[in-house]
Specification:
Length: 184
């Protein structure tokens, strides 16, 4: 993932064993290892030019995924208070994190048209806040996966119409629109 200033790229690599998060300048050079978790990490993006956001499954207890950030200078990892998070995107101003909770992809399941208790849900969280996240579009009735912020909206993939398509909503979970019409 490219840093907000466009100068660095964070990526997953398996240079010394299990996959970890690495960083290197866009212009090239030796990669710098950012995580030391023994695998189970997946890059999500950047919180700002000095903090990489990633998920970790290499945790004690029963939480399958946890969002963490790592300071690229000090290598200090910090847990975000958002259990069961798998994918995320930041608003354009970097103040709001939109993330999915649950989702069958967390459990290596490929079910189509799944509407059960592990259905992927979209949540909103104020970065730096200790308050619980707010679920968006709770009555949408279909999984919301792979959120991406662009031009003031959250774009996502869902099989609401029977096949995966791209949809979007505003930052409050309203004004939901379908953008593609695939039937496969």
């Amino acid at each position: 993932r490219l840093s907000p200033d466009g100068r660095q790229v964070a990526f997953e690599g398996a240079y010394d064993g299990p996959s970890e998060i690495y960083l290197m300048p866009v212009a090239g050079g030796a990669p710098k290892r950012l995580t030391y978790e023994g695998g189970g990490v997946s890059i999500v993006g950047w919180l700002d030019d000095s903090h990489v956001l990633y998920t970790s499954t290499n945790l004690p207890g029963t939480i399958p995924y946890l969002l963490r950030s790592v300071d690229i200078s000090t290598l200090t990892a910090t847990d975000l208070p958002l259990a069961d998070a798998s994918t995320a995107t930041l608003s354009g101003d970097g103040q709001t994190l939109f993330f999915t909770r649950f989702g069958l992809s967390m459990f290596s399941d490929n079910a189509v048209l799944y509407r059960g208790g592990r259905m992927a849900q979209l949540w909103r969280h104020d970065v730096g806040s200790d308050t619980e996240a707010v679920r968006l579009a709770a009555d949408f009735g279909a999984p919301i996966r792979h959120p991406m912020w662009w031009d003031g909206r959250i774009y996502f993939v869902t099989d609401k119409t029977g096949s995966d398509n791209i949809w979007s909503m505003d930052a409050t979970g309203g004004d939901i629109r379908q953008h593609t019409q695939s039937d496969r």
